[in-house]
């Protein structure tokens, strides 16, 4: 159904720009724009555990706070925080920082399509920037299944919706796609560390999407290299 | 419960005093401390009263609002109590302790007012199934020197006596919509018959004897105490507070004691309320501002 | 965000310096840090930065029922997130902004009415303090006002019977919010209750703990005054500060209007770049030849001499703009020959030893720390 | 648009002149302070009626800091709690507010105001609690009455302060005449309202200002006028407070106290 | 039948002392006490612009060049040698924390007490462990101020037979500024009871106990008090409260005057405010006549 190898165009990602060290008060910070999505992530840590209940003798405690572009954080944001916490715990060598806490604060700025992938990539860059030791890097790719069953990687979706802040109105914000996927890959084995899907699709479509995204993720890893190289050269 | 420290020896002194029928302020076991009352103290409330038993200082404000009757009691109004253990009374109230005490008193009031013999909720109904009055009775404890239950129930009674509910001149049912016309004249209003409204009475057992109107120190050294709600000749609620146990005979004696005492107290209270009302009308006393 | 510990030496140093009319960042007593405003791709998203203090603001709206007391007016709600557990500063900033924006009637709330007594637009301004290097209130106020000025709401037509339709942007153009005036907060830290210092840094704020915040619009109207912290001042000082604040507000309003106009032109030409235009450092060429450009970037960073007139510094930003497209990572395939640190990590899945990987990551993180020094 | 706040005869909506205060009654020591012998007792209290606003303030302390009061680094712990009674406002019953921004703001302001006048160095390592209960108010700027009542309560508790803190509001008519002590009705009608808390010193024109608040806007050139009006109001309030305090004091004093 | 009395607040008379403004001048907060430079500032004052100003509302007091203002009502400010009545709030290692109505809790070190039996020896670990046997939380004691620490907190001692743990009786709390400083604060009143008038405003009324029998001041007598004694104790208590309500200085003579004035009433009648004020004022008049 999909001519993944043949059609190079399909692998196009939206342009990414990033700047590190933008916030003087945090240990690692980044602003990332990825097409119509952008966010700021700052990482603080490892620090003293704020609440003793969270103290873990064996590893660092991760705290993620996700602020939406507008409105107060709701269930949706809690859910995203949880996912980010999980994948960060996978890539961070938390065992190196026992009895301490690592905070990640995310501020959504332009909530275009694929904002969640953008946020995860930003987290990765911010963590690199903070100097927290990591097992591997990670890259997230967003892709959708349109109503003609075509897979599109990282689409630009100029949605017509007005920004609203109540949770109910946010929830009904409908998508014109059949399904969308966000895959997160780690750099060591390029294995999937998190998948987040919406809508319905066949297993075949899912496999294709994963392959496609994996291919696309390489570009993001390249971008990390590029970024690191550029920063390294400044010195 | 409000707390004032007492050493063992002080407690024993109080205990022996109760045995001798000569309490720490000279009262006998059946005596009340002097009480003071004033109604209509808060202009923004439809009914209000300040009631003090010695230094237990209670302020009650009542606001009626129009509400829809609950479906299982279509021809009854509603009454809601809220006790606010203001930090002015005692800073011990800050935090959990105060909330517990507040909900305990609130519940007790709710129970004692829930009986149709004590308080006629039907009189608060405007249009069965559609409209009724809901009375919000908010109680502020300004100061606490023991015997909160009695002081609060008396203050509530005074405020209810003072309550003026705007008179509904007509109520029309137009389809599902209710059209209410309230009287424009502020002096044209409904009042509540306060005569049989219940009074709560705290009885503390210290040693082998029971006392009424315990001071804060006496509350602290009582082994067990009970709150009895009395309306006319009837009991509306009995509730033991602060642990301890009563012998069945003691409890019987105690109830007899409260009924007679409460009846007497009720008479005195109504007399005072009527006297105040008469004075306000006749003398046109320049309205005394609150707390002065 | 971490609160640095203030030592007695630092405190004494700052106090003494101020007494001699000196500030530790070389600014004059009535001199402000550089201001920059960037608009996002969405209407109503703004990042404002004042020196290193950065604030993000976004406006959103939705339809709801009006308050019974004001049946034909929309409402505005302001929410401030400080990102720290401290509650007090957050309340203070929120209330000052509420007074400045809501109670000065700068927004035409009546124009937000759809059907009187039934449906109105509710505006919500979410302000997120990203980085606090002092004077959060000025920056937050500028961000909030520019976000409101930038915001567009969908058009809406009422068709009798309380029915109404919200038009999509494709059907009808989005409409801006009507702002009568732009109130601007100007914060003066008060030393000894006598010496006002414009645009205090976080160090100065922590030393004095008292400040006078005046909100003034371009018409020299005072919209709010607020005296925060433990302090006693004289009326004369308030008068003096308000005159200075009026000057400042005029410049800021001009700057906001210019920035809005620039954004409008960009959007018309279909070149809206969103926040990517704020990104400077990806410009740094990988081969490190173009030192001139770096110097330029560095210059704008360190150039603290911004007099009121020089606040904009927009020349440098524009320059960066034009370069951004070229040097950002775009969809072009990048060459495969790169072998930087990070690349090594990717290629080392078979080296199972964690220590190995860690070393590599370590070097990269080291690099970044050094680079931090250079950049700031 | 701003309705005219002053009639042709120069009278305001409630019949006052432009520089006239509303009725103020106050009393110190309204709550018994010797009721308890533990440290949480009330050490000073005051009640004030100002226009339609009735406020009770009570002080507990200075005392040994309670363990839960947290912050160790602060040498002087000053807690302020403000509450509005549910029946305090005309019309609908007020919900019990907890952690509301409005209350939070008043509390922070009070803290700052009084920390700047209490001789803090005398109360090292101690805790002082100020509790405010607003029994009745008409929706106007009750912060004035709260500040004035708190001043009385602090004085009743014998807390060392530099001066009385007096708070007052002022507004402006269309013709640019400053109005003293704005009532709620006048506030609704849309004049700008300036609230200040000042330390009106005897025989000193240049007052120290501890707090300023402004709602709505006016031209900078009018600032002086409205400010002067506020200061005048503060002086007047000072006189009223002083009378109440002296009245209370003479009750206390007997010839013995000096011979001690 | 129960005794119930309900008064109407609208009829409540306004009691006021109506003392001639006479020789006591009230200074209010912020008022300049003196413009002369050669004075030293004491409690209740502060220095600004070279003037000594009052920081509280009260009566100025001058001892040589030291000027201080005594507030009408405040927490107890201790001085060495004061007699206090206090209550144990906390027991920690080697010390008791005592509530003395002052700004900070006072301390009673285990080394500042006479051990039971009057032994004079070093305190050992065993004594530390049995501290609770001597004084436990909420126990009352009388003591003397031994030292005032720099932060204002007090250190107490009970190294005299007259000090120690208090047994049965009633504690009354009044404003510390109403306590008249005298040589003796322990009184056996002619009416047959004893009072300890603590400088800190805590007054202890109790039956007379023979000091020698107390054995070091930590024994307690828990036998019932006779009804006669009890009545006197309660009457004295009510009298002291009446004096406090009328702001009359409290010392042995004033207590006795009030006691004598109260004899025409029943003890419980003294709870009524009008009786209370009458007793207080009459006592006050008698004191004024005395001068």
Report on the structure:
- The complex is a heteropentamer of chains A (235), B (292), C (376), D (260) and E (291).
- Chain A has helices at residues 75-91, 115-130, 167-171, 203-234; strands at 16-20, 28-34, 37-48, 61-67, 100-110, 138-145, 151-153, 179-186, 192-199.
- Chain A is an alpha+beta fold and 235 residues long.
- Chain A has a single domain (12-234), classed as Ribosomal Protein S5, domain 2.
- Mean pLDDT of chain A is 83; it is low at 1-8 and 167-173.
- Chain B is built from five helices and 14 strands.
- Chain B has 292 residues and is of the alpha+beta class.
- In chain B, 52% of the residues are buried.
- With 376 residues, chain C is an alpha+beta fold.
- Chain C has two domains: 8-287, Ribosomal Protein S5, domain 2 (2-Layer Sandwich), CATH 3.30.230.70; 341-375.
- In chain C, 37% of the residues lie in helices and 22% in strands.
- Chain C has nine helices and 14 strands.
- In chain C, a hairpin with a 3-residue loop joins strand 5 (113-115) and strand 6 (119-131).
- In chain C, helix 3 (136-150) runs parallel beside helix 5 and helix 8 (341-347) runs antiparallel to helix 9.
- With 260 residues, chain D is α+β, with helices and mostly antiparallel strands.
- Chain D has one domain: GHMP Kinase, N-terminal domain (Ribosomal Protein S5, domain 2, 2-Layer Sandwich).
- In chain D, 26% of the residues lie in helices and 26% in strands.
- Chain D has helices at 101-115, 143-156, 184-188, 223-252, 256-259; strands at residues 24-28, 44-50, 53-63, 77-84, 127-136, 166-172, 178-180, 193-199, 208-215, 218-219.
- At the D-E interface, strand 3, helix 4 and helix 5 of D face strand 7, strand 15 and helix 5 of E.
- Strand 14 of chain C pairs antiparallel with strand 10 of chain D, so a sheet runs across the interface.
- Chain C: This is Exosome complex component RRP45.
Return Rg of chain D in Å: 19 Å
What share of residues of chain D is helical?
25-40%
Q: Compute the gyration radius of chain E: what is it?
A: 21 Å
How would you sum up the major sheet of chain D? Answer: 5 strands, mixed
Approximate shape of chain E: flat
| Order of strands, widest sheet of chain E | 9-10-11-13-12
What is the CATH H-level superfamily of one domain in chain E?
Answer: RNA polymerase II/Efflux pump adaptor protein, barrel-sandwich hybrid domain
Unreliable parts of chain D: 255-260
Shape of chain D: globular
Distance linking N and C termini of chain D: 64 Å
Compressed to H and E, one letter per element, the order of chain E equals EEEEEEEEEEEHHEEEEEEEHHH
What's the number of extended β-strand segments of chain E? 18
CATH fold-level label of chain D: Ribosomal Protein S5, domain 2
The main sheet of chain E comes to: 5 strands, mixed, barrel
The CATH class name of one domain in chain E reads: Mainly Beta
Number of helices of chain E: 5
Estimate nothing, just give the exact number of structural domains of chain D: 1
GO molecular function (chain A): RNA binding
Pfam families (chain A): RNase_PH
Keywords (chain A): Exosome, Nucleus, rRNA processing
Main location (chain A): nucleus
